[in-house]
């Protein structure tokens, strides 16, 4: 049996961990079946507990731009660990990573490190509220900003003005301050702003969305949001947890030529260790404790292992910026290959792509927002996912997730992947 040991480990895990996993998508609920358990990974490949090898398209959901067990990161982490893992007292490496990030990313002067993307987004919104003195925020249906209360809101029927909680435990009190709009719908945002004049602290979005498949903003939409924020005294918050240091040195701000007011990071900035961060111009960051009154803190924030891993990762990117062209070319190659096979098979599909993010949707119409993304045929997706898994290709186990390519992927890996789709019974 191909997945025998994974299956036994999952059964054991479920006894002690809710659903057997520490993050829900891992449990394969969206695709059926049982998750595989990973023993080790190197470069573009994962190896499971049954010694099956997989070509990996999630890269730990984004961080591993150069592939698994990347030597410069591993070396730094080992060196740092020998000298102590955390002190709760300042270290030089924090400033080194901060300076490097500020040098690489446009339009930011200062950066605060936290331990996850969730924390980064949660803290950034608090800062936006503290800075503007306003309570409400606008978010887009289908955008994910971590699991803190203010963001676990989705449009229920008729809930255009006031969000309704879509996770038990999120209070109506919290939900009422989160206003919902549709991605790529500037008019919808204008209407919300009009209806909530001078009450909105800011607009938060994934500047290239990756949590409802990969969705690229239209020029009109993204420039419109910038203008609207400037006109109305609202802050524009770019959640670059996914796009930061993946779409280019300067992330989506650079790729789309838009300046945001607060930028949030995670994933790549930690090189595979738990790191998040939020950054802005000094004028805004001055409101953060201990310089200002907006409180935010963390026992393990800026610990030397995490900072070392992030510094090694960002240094490699800084010195090898051609990695972004290389990744984009590989992603384009994969796109063409997948499209060709699916077209030959007569399967309706849409493929969205930006840089090294790509998603395949089994539907007829263009995917531009959450509603169009939701129209994908999930039965086809399930067959596709498991067909690929059985042939040693690990894709995101949800139709709403983007693939993240890593530069350890070779063209021969991409060819094997495309070949495997031919064998899928879709
Ligand atoms: C992953 C992600 C987050 C949450 O980051 P965690 O480290 O999982 O808390 C927030 N925003 C976006 C856009 C993400 O992709």
Task: Produce a short descriptive summary.
The protein has 426 residues and is of the alpha/beta class. Helix content is 38%, strand content 15%.
State the main characteristics.
Aspartate Aminotransferase, domain 2; binds pyridoxal-5'-phosphate; about 40% helix; 7-stranded mixed sheet; about 425 residues; 14 helices; 16 strands; alpha/beta; 4-stranded mixed sheet; Aspartate Aminotransferase, domain 1
Q: What do these coordinates show?
A:
This protein has 426 residues and is an alpha/beta fold. The chain folds into two domains: 169 residues, Alpha-Beta Complex (Aspartate Aminotransferase, domain 1); 249 residues, Type I PLP-dependent aspartate aminotransferase-like (Major domain) (Aspartate Aminotransferase, domain 2), CATH 3.40.640. It contains 14 helices and 16 strands. The strands form four sheets. It has a seven-stranded mixed β-sheet, sandwiched between helices. A four-stranded mixed β-sheet has the order 1-2-3-15. Strand 2 and strand 3 form a beta hairpin. Helix 6 runs parallel beside helix 7. About 2% of the residues have low confidence. Bound molecules: pyridoxal-5'-phosphate (PLP). Pyridoxal-5'-phosphate binds next to helix 4.
Order of helices and strands: HEEEHHEHEEEHEHEHEHEEHHHEEHHEEH
Helix content: 25-40%
Number of strands: 16
Give Rg in angstroms. 21 Å
CATH superfamily annotation of the largest domain:
Type I PLP-dependent aspartate aminotransferase-like (Major domain)
Structural class: alpha/beta
- The stretches of 5 or more residues where confidence is low (pLDDT under 50) are 155-161
